[in-house]
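Course assignment 3, question 2. Fill in each field.
Student: A.L.
Task: Predict the tertiary structure for the chain below.
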Amino acid sequence: MKVRVLDPFEDGKQIWLGDEKGMVRKVFRTIDRDQCNSEYFVSGITYFEPGESSSLHNHPNSEEIDFIIQGSGVVESDNETLPFKSMQYMFIPKGVMHRHYNTGRDTMILLWTYTPPGELPKD
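Answer field:
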């Protein structure tokens, strides 16, 4: 094993999720077993244009940590909507349904990590 420096755009796996207007997000999955032989983590960044959101989804067996690199929005979970902005973290317990919305005027960039590894939502 060795230390790796990875560029999400060159080394990451590009996954465009969703096909409905307002539900498309650009995912660059950079840390996982396939990309760098990670045993415990899955991580990457997702870009949301203004007005875009993720689908309502969960990671049934994984805890998730998100860090907002740029932008602002809200996270919907359990009939609650919480605002967030750049330079803030959010913690999502395993199995909790959630959805991220970009409510700002700029592109939102979200760094996400979850463990143990699991699958990304399909939409």
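Instructor remarks: The first helix runs from residue 33 to 36. The beta strands are 13-17, 25-31, 42-48, 63-70, 72-77, 80-85, 89-92, 99-102, 108-115.
Grade: pending
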